[in-house]
Amino acid sequence: MRDLSTLTVDTTRFSPGQWEFSQEPDRATYICLDCAGGPIIDIQTGRQTDGTEGRVRSGQTTFDALAAQCQARDPSCRLEGLDLGPAVGWVTSYGLGDQAAHTIVVIRDGDLITARILSSDATVARQNADAVIAHILPAIIGQ
Question: Where in the sequence is the domain holding 56, given as residue range(s)?
């Protein structure tokens, strides 16, 4: 996984507007105050060594099982698996108060990326989540 402070991000891939950002080695946060829905994107790196990655890779833990856990906490929660090459991952979509939220979880060799995307506009939130999946995650995960 990459040091997020050196990550080059093309914010034109996100919602149109003037994005402000802060990047540190283990966290990158992007905020757009003049965008529709006031979106926030927060990406953090860490470690996940509890065996989740192996259980998902082997099929012992399925995306359907993860989705059931998510829906048990919040009936509006939806989960879909992600095709991320050498990493395993999924994205959950749910309501959080008056916000639409997406959490992306990616694990590769015990390295963890967690990205949270919030917006008061559900379409904006999903578009930004898709931009993170398509344009930021590949740069962090590597090949």
Answer: 19-141
Inter-residue contact 23 to 30 (CB < 8 Å): no
Residue 13 lies in a domain: no
Mean per-residue pLDDT of the chain: 93
- With the CA atoms of 117, 122, 124 and 127 taken in that order, what torsion angle do they form, in degrees rounded to the nearest 10? 70
As for how many domains the chain has, the answer is: 1
Distances (CA, A) of 69 to 26, 92, 100: 27, 11, 19
* Angle (nearest 5°) at CA 111 between 108 and 114: 95
pLDDT of 110: 93
**pLDDT tens digits for 24-61?**
999 999 999 999 999 999 999 999 989 999 999 999 99
